[in-house]
Every structure is written in structure tokens, then in C-alpha cells.
């Protein structure tokens, strides 16, 4: 059974009310407690630049497979 236009409009209106009644106050409370973007000024800090996060380099083993450092690839044993 197809839904009527009014049902769709009421659903959208209900979701908007739910968003502004729950999500917006929760976000405002979080911002009141702490600064999530750390925008406050700190005179004792020499720089605000942060080094980039370290990523795992992928290396190629002798078999041609890519692997991450620290992970060993076990070869299948040959049948006897």
C-alpha cells in the first residue's frame, strides 16, 4: 500500500522534532563542558601544529605479496 503525502510529511516533521529535541541539546552540552576542536588559546604552547599520524607502510616480501611490518606470512606446507 503506498503511503500518502501527509504520512511522509509527518514522518519528516517527526524526525526534525526528534533531532532538535535530542541531538542539538546533547551537542550543546558537550560544547559547554569541553572544547572539541581545541580552539582555546594557550600562551605556553610553542606551536599549534601537530605531526601527522604515523601510518603502516606496506612492504613487498620475496614472494611478491604485500604485508605489514610485524606480521609474518606463513607458507602452506607441501604435502608429503
What does this 3D model show about the protein?
- By secondary structure, the chain is mostly helical.
- 36% of the residues lie in helices and 5% in strands.
- The chain is flat, with a radius of gyration of 27 Å.
- The mean pLDDT is 79.
Order of helices and strands: HEE
Name the shape in a single word.
Answer: flat
Strand content: 5-15%
Question: What structural class do you assign from the helix and strand content?
Answer: mainly alpha
Give a short synopsis of this structure.
This protein is mainly α.
SSE blueprint:
Layout: H1 5-33, E1 59-60, E2 66-67
Antiparallel strand pairs: 1-2
Features:
80 residues, flat, 1 helix, mainly alpha
